[in-house]
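Fold Annotation — chain and its backbone

Fields — amino acid sequence, structure tokens

___
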Amino acid sequence: MTIKVENTSIHDSLLFDPIKVGNMELQHRIVHAPATRLRCHEDGMVMTDLVKEYYSQRSAIPGTFLITESIFSGPKSGGFTNIPCLYNEKHVEAWRPIVKAIHEKKCFVFMQFWNLPGELKPEYLVDQENLENISHGECPMDPTGLPAALGSVYSICGEELYMDKYMNKSSIDEHIAEYTEAAKRAVFGCGADGIEVHQVNGFLLDKFVLNGFGEKCDPNYRGTLENRVRFCLELLGSVVKAIGQERVGYRISPYSDIWKSKDHVEAHVYVVQKLRENFKKLAYLHVIEPRTYWTGHQHILREQNSLEYQKLWKQPLLSAGGHDQNSALQLTTQDNVLAVFGRYFLANPDLPFRLKYNIPLNRWNRARFYTKKSPEGYIDYPFCDEFLSKALKVENEKHPSEKQESKN
């Protein structure tokens, strides 16, 4: 079921104008956000049929750009159950049909990779049931996919999950190697259009940038901004060498100061400057806007917002965090800016169509965001009648002879 979105503007916005991002020719500027949904088996093997149906539904409008949920790039980067992985051939085989389904709808996909901020304690690796109870059990989850009771990145619901381990040069190099191999699997194995590097919300790369390791890492990766950003730049350099700059996006959360770094603003400005200097052909910069979780979201186009970083970046910039129709239209009056939707895209598989024609949106069911391995709250949100009617008309125009035969 696919229909074409026409090239028109609304209220002087560029939201429905085509744009080139990396090697992709997008037909509008509404992007599917990466969002953890736990529709995987306990061992990280993605549930191919279920996840394929989800992404296929959200590829209903040709030229749409989708970013997958966070994927563990290797054994060192993960440890949580029901989170997708991509570090062996079986993982590749499970993801390949999902990517193919997106491409068959003439849409595009980047696979996002993340790393936990440290290695899980051995007892949690052995006792996965206890880990599940802590990480996905009674502890509620916030809209980012993180447990709401996150006291720090090390503590969930009062439980310290990670080993307090020195991060030496060898460990850093192992992470870079795993990440690079995962990027190659994504592009050359699964057929994805690219990958997104995750330097967000205090996880591993962000932890280095915000000085979260303190003195407990190699001296060349701590202290000065130049040192703290070194890991990110080395990882990015390795990945782009393997798959090309145009196939790589980079995500930051500059308004999250989970490590309480005194210079987190300066750190992120420095990161973007270095990206601009060293990776001029990077597909995009992806910025999470300032938000207030649980109590609604701020008007993100006031005061601080991602456009501060666009002044430095100047290339395609993706803005995520609490967008609705009005904020997306307003944001995309700026050239080279795209609006990223998570909860609304989950609840509305035909979201670009609904936004274009001002059709009321389905409301998401938060209680089903993280219902492990379940189709409920995942692939059961309805398309609007207007979309179904127009899609049927398109199909009939494609196959007029079949329609005539049915009459006879």
Notes: The CA atoms of residues 154 and 270 lie 26 Å apart. The radius of gyration is 21 Å.
